[in-house]
Amino acid sequence: MDYIKAFLVGGIICALVQILMEKTKMLPGRIMVLLVCSGVVLSFLGLYQPFQEFAGAGASVPLLGFGNVLMKGVKEAVDTEGFLGVFMGGFKAGAVGCSGALILGYLASLLTSSKMRK
Q: What distance in Å separates the CA atoms of residue 31 and residue 38, rounded to the nearest whole number?
Protein backbone atom coordinates (compact mmCIF):
# COMPACT_ATOMS: atom_id res chain seq x y z
CA MET A 1 0.00 0.00 0.00
CA ASP A 2 2.89 2.41 0.74
CA TYR A 3 4.28 1.98 -2.77
CA ILE A 4 0.94 3.11 -4.19
CA LYS A 5 1.08 6.36 -2.19
CA ALA A 6 4.69 6.90 -3.29
CA PHE A 7 3.73 6.27 -6.91
CA LEU A 8 0.75 8.63 -6.73
CA VAL A 9 2.63 11.46 -5.01
CA GLY A 10 5.58 11.18 -7.40
CA GLY A 11 3.15 11.14 -10.31
CA ILE A 12 1.29 14.20 -9.03
CA ILE A 13 4.57 16.10 -8.66
CA CYS A 14 5.56 15.13 -12.21
CA ALA A 15 2.11 16.12 -13.53
CA LEU A 16 2.33 19.54 -11.85
CA VAL A 17 5.77 20.09 -13.35
CA GLN A 18 4.48 19.10 -16.78
CA ILE A 19 1.60 21.56 -16.44
CA LEU A 20 4.06 24.31 -15.46
CA MET A 21 6.18 23.54 -18.51
CA GLU A 22 3.23 23.59 -20.88
CA LYS A 23 1.20 26.50 -19.48
CA THR A 24 4.02 28.91 -18.61
CA LYS A 25 7.17 30.07 -20.33
CA MET A 26 9.32 28.64 -17.53
CA LEU A 27 12.31 26.67 -18.73
CA PRO A 28 13.11 23.26 -17.22
CA GLY A 29 16.10 24.65 -15.32
CA ARG A 30 13.95 27.24 -13.58
CA ILE A 31 11.35 24.64 -12.71
CA MET A 32 14.08 22.45 -11.19
CA VAL A 33 15.26 25.38 -9.06
CA LEU A 34 11.64 26.02 -8.05
CA LEU A 35 11.30 22.40 -6.89
CA VAL A 36 14.53 22.51 -4.87
CA CYS A 37 13.53 25.82 -3.27
CA SER A 38 10.06 24.41 -2.52
CA GLY A 39 11.71 21.50 -0.71
CA VAL A 40 13.78 23.96 1.33
CA VAL A 41 10.71 26.02 2.27
CA LEU A 42 8.65 22.93 3.19
CA SER A 43 11.52 21.66 5.32
CA PHE A 44 11.95 25.05 7.00
CA LEU A 45 8.25 25.18 7.85
CA GLY A 46 8.36 21.65 9.26
CA LEU A 47 5.97 20.33 6.62
CA TYR A 48 8.36 18.18 4.60
CA GLN A 49 8.90 15.43 7.18
CA PRO A 50 5.17 14.64 7.60
CA PHE A 51 4.82 14.82 3.81
CA GLN A 52 7.71 12.37 3.37
CA GLU A 53 6.33 10.00 6.01
CA PHE A 54 3.03 9.97 4.16
CA ALA A 55 4.40 9.67 0.62
CA GLY A 56 7.66 7.78 1.18
CA ALA A 57 9.90 7.64 -1.89
CA GLY A 58 7.38 9.67 -3.89
CA ALA A 59 8.44 12.70 -1.88
CA SER A 60 12.09 11.91 -1.19
CA VAL A 61 13.30 11.09 -4.69
CA PRO A 62 12.35 14.22 -6.67
CA LEU A 63 14.10 17.56 -6.38
CA LEU A 64 11.94 18.43 -3.40
CA GLY A 65 13.95 15.85 -1.48
CA PHE A 66 17.22 17.52 -2.47
CA GLY A 67 15.94 20.82 -1.10
CA ASN A 68 15.07 19.04 2.14
CA VAL A 69 18.59 17.57 2.36
CA LEU A 70 20.12 21.01 1.84
CA MET A 71 17.91 22.55 4.53
CA LYS A 72 18.73 19.80 7.03
CA GLY A 73 22.44 20.27 6.35
CA VAL A 74 22.24 24.02 6.87
CA LYS A 75 20.23 23.61 10.08
CA GLU A 76 22.70 21.11 11.55
CA ALA A 77 25.70 23.23 10.55
CA VAL A 78 24.18 26.38 12.03
CA ASP A 79 23.53 24.51 15.28
CA THR A 80 27.18 23.41 15.50
CA GLU A 81 29.13 26.14 13.67
CA GLY A 82 26.94 29.21 14.15
CA PHE A 83 26.40 31.69 11.33
CA LEU A 84 29.20 30.16 9.25
CA GLY A 85 27.05 27.02 8.99
CA VAL A 86 24.71 28.89 6.64
CA PHE A 87 27.45 28.70 4.01
CA MET A 88 28.86 25.25 4.89
CA GLY A 89 25.81 23.13 5.66
CA GLY A 90 24.29 22.81 2.22
CA PHE A 91 27.62 21.91 0.66
CA LYS A 92 28.34 19.21 3.21
CA ALA A 93 24.86 17.69 3.00
CA GLY A 94 24.55 17.79 -0.77
CA ALA A 95 28.16 16.98 -1.71
CA VAL A 96 27.67 13.27 -2.31
CA GLY A 97 24.65 13.71 -4.56
CA CYS A 98 26.21 16.58 -6.51
CA SER A 99 29.51 14.76 -6.91
CA GLY A 100 27.74 11.64 -8.13
CA ALA A 101 25.70 13.64 -10.63
CA LEU A 102 28.77 15.44 -11.95
CA ILE A 103 30.85 12.27 -12.28
CA LEU A 104 28.07 10.24 -13.90
CA GLY A 105 27.15 13.13 -16.19
CA TYR A 106 30.77 13.43 -17.29
CA LEU A 107 31.00 9.69 -17.93
CA ALA A 108 27.78 9.82 -19.94
CA SER A 109 29.19 12.66 -22.02
CA LEU A 110 32.27 10.58 -22.80
CA LEU A 111 30.20 7.58 -23.85
CA THR A 112 27.60 9.40 -25.95
CA SER A 113 27.58 12.00 -28.68
CA SER A 114 25.13 14.85 -28.26
CA LYS A 115 23.86 17.06 -31.04
CA MET A 116 23.43 20.78 -30.55
CA ARG A 117 19.97 22.23 -31.16
CA LYS A 118 19.58 25.18 -33.49
A: 10
